[in-house]
Here is the input.
Amino acid sequence: MNQSVSQRMQELEELLNRYNKEYYENDEPSVPDAEYDRLFHELKALETEHPDLRNASSPTMKVGGKPLGQFKTVQHEVPMLSLDNAFSVEEFEAFSKRVEQRLDTNQTVTFCCEPKLDGAAVSLLYENGLLVRGATRGDGQSGEDITENVKTIRNVPLKLSGDVPERLEVRGEVVMPLGAFERFNEQARLRDEKVFANPRNAAAGSLRQLDSKITAKRPLHFYAYSLGVISETTQLPDSHYMRLQQLKDWGLPVNIEIKTVESVQGCDDYYESILARRDSLNYDIDGVVFKVDSVRLQQDLGFVARAPRWAIARKFPAQEQLTTITGVDFQVGRTGAITPVARLEPVNVGGVTVSNATLHNADEIERLGVRIGDCVSIRRAGDVIPQVVSVVKDKRPEKTEAIEFPLHCPICQSDIERVEGEAVARCTGGLYCAAQRKEAIKHFASRKAMDIDGLGDKIVEQLVERDWIKSPADLYRLSKAELATLPRMGSKSAENLRNAIKATQETTLARFIYSLGIREVGEATANALANHFKNLDALVAANSEQLQEVPDVGAVVAHHIVSFFQESHNQQVVAELREFISWPEGEDASSVQSDRLTGNTYVITGTLSTMTRDEAKSALEALGAKVASSVSKKTTALVAGENAGSKLTKAQSLGLSILDEEALHELLKD
Ligand SMILES: [Zn+2]
Here is the structure.
């Protein structure tokens, strides 16, 4: 029996070592964390049961991978250890009980609670307030010298302000914000470059570039969460939380969600509240960390081999899981884009059952090398649709089937076209295609467009399936009697819907432009177009150069607008809509604004690469924001471009949020 146990342990060690290497050294994991954790737990349990069989070099004994040869090695003066995990409230309660017993106290313990950011851990060393070294965690004892790379991270201060200790080592996490990550991968897919499996790998991979110019182009963000080495003479508060506030005063970014609570109940409430908001955060987290807040008590508690006794990470449900692809559907979007969607054996990912995941496009299918029947890793994070991130080729069954990309639209049989140099294939059917028509009308009726109350997706689908609606203008021709014949539609609700449709006949130019669903013309761009052109005819007549005078309109968007208004069936749709819909034109149109950012004040500094500061200003103002010239406590956020100077330092010292150009686009896009 021991024979098979030791065999299994060896097998687990080999697997874990391989996954470790993929994860830490190549930034390219082939299995999700949850699978790694399962195997790790299995090995740990076997080792506890059979301590005599434990290998001294077992992966349970170390934290990460060895540094690659290319970077200089940095010895951590104080080891960067990892944390123990709790996967349930019971495991957390057991931890808390151990803490109380060890401290031999009946008093309530105060915990500092932090979201557990899923990025790359780094150490920053400041001497006399100047950043002199940045290092990766590596195996916890020694890491890689990535000084040049961390210097490129926007919110890492190169110089601290105030009464700073002579030597100060700050530790924290480098993350790639979710929106920036999605855009980065989207671009990489278009250019056929390396696509990262998740934001953590993107952050780690970006930090480990030998050329810091590449790192500088990656939208990375740093959050400090602890101190390492610190000159002995320095007096610091006993509370870990207060020490983080001190770091903030010196100019280091500290996550805003960090707070202290009393007792197990407080920790549990914190866990629930962060879990509930997980999908709305702009960065990946895989749990929350609880630390005994008193540093004196931390010292009393000490360490065990791998981890401190005074802290624990309570994990959230994993955002990546393995499952099997049972088939592929091809969906047709509003602009005709054909998206291959993998049908899956249902699997719980991050607390939600997932049975479909996007495969993006034909190139992506090829890149992944995925086949029907394959075991794949699925990722679901934030409000982004679940996606297939990798194929576990080791687990490929004998019989798999190639994925055939269709040549004709599965809905209307029109030809599918793929424009040279574009990753996306499109149905050429336009509004003839029922799938495109449904999506176009859903968009037309949506909240930020014409905002037709009560015209839900189900009703739109029924209207299109009955062929009552060939273009959005037909909505205004529907009678109450017709509507009342739809399933589950009483005469009262038919009347309400009819009135709701009628009510949108008076609208604004900005809403009208947005409702047309022109490719890449979002709410902010529609506003900017309305403000600039003041009336529809001027917009329709504008050429590409004239369009590019509008803030946030580049060559690509201008091209989409020109082609939209050149299409004869679009001209017809617009003409028909104008029979029913009107809006104030001329100067009045410029007051057409969204109030999405009303009450927020921004300051813009530094050089932006995709727009001028004036353009950024009017784009923000078009959404109701104020743009001020100096930073104060009332500032909502600082927009910092290249070479930002004193305003950035001031904003950091006030603890304001800093938006880089990526984040600004994200804000304007919504
Ligand atoms: Zn079609």
